[in-house]
Amino acid sequence: TLQGQLATITAAGMSIRAATLRMNRGESRAWIDSPGELHLPMKKDFSGKPLSGLQFLVVRWQGGMQLENEVVSFHGKVIANTNDGSLHTDQMLVTLTEPVRFDGAAQQRQTELAQLECRGNVNAEFKQRDEAGIVSVQNIKLQSFLANQQTGQLSGMGPGELESVHLASSSSKITGFASTSPTRTPTGQGLRFLRV
Fold it and tell me: Residues with Cβ < 8 Å from 58, sequence gap 6 or more?
């Protein structure tokens, strides 16, 4: 058990912070029964497209977290942030590209996000940018949301709502945390609004 004002463990490029953190080195398990945060490196956006540089997925929760090998689960007012968006949900399940080990048996490769799944009261805001700034903003409400970086699959289950504000000639797609840079509309053209 690690305790302190903010106990931290770092493994495979990922870091976890909380007031109290419990772990079982032999089973490569860690769990937290209080608020905390996790920082995970990202080289691709949620749809699997390469990012322009290294970014971090930062997950904060109020309930608890459990990590076992390559699966991390969170519950209780979970918020995930990247440079281009945020996700709010009741529960989140993150699958990593590499298992996280605490036994010190071998040097680990850096792990990254493979899949993210949200369950219950999903609220998301996604922004897309080009070199001059923001070109679109999407707000989505769903009951569940899944993003698989390996396959590029983005899916959700309703009932739900979708609102999109984008530049009139923008070619932006509603992909969520996307790194694509839509074409900016010429100066003087307006915005478009979509609600579904």
Answer: 37, 38, 39, 40, 80, 81, 82
User: Cis link prior to 159 (omega < 30° from 0)?
Assistant: yes
Tens of pLDDT, residues 102-128: 766 665 688 889 999 999 999 999 887
Residue showing tokens 């770092």: 10
What ranges make up the beta strands (E) of 97-153? 113-130, 133-148
Q: What is the reported pTM?
A: 0.81
- Confidence band, pLDDT 50/70/90 cuts, at residue 75: very high
Note the pLDDT tens digit of each residue in 125-161: 988 777 777 788 889 999 999 999 888 888 999 999 9
Which residues, other chains included, contact 22 with Cβ-Cβ below 8 Å and sequence gap of 6+? 1, 2, 30, 31, 32
Token readout for 51 is 């990012």
Token pair recorded at residue 52? 């322009």
Burial class (CB in 10 A: 0-12, 13-18, 19+), 54: exposed
Q: Are strands 50-61 and 71-82 parallel, antiparallel or unpaired?
A: antiparallel
Cα–Cα dist 91/118, whole Å: 6
Closest CA to 43 of 127, 93, 110: 110
* Tokens standing for residue 86: 């945020």
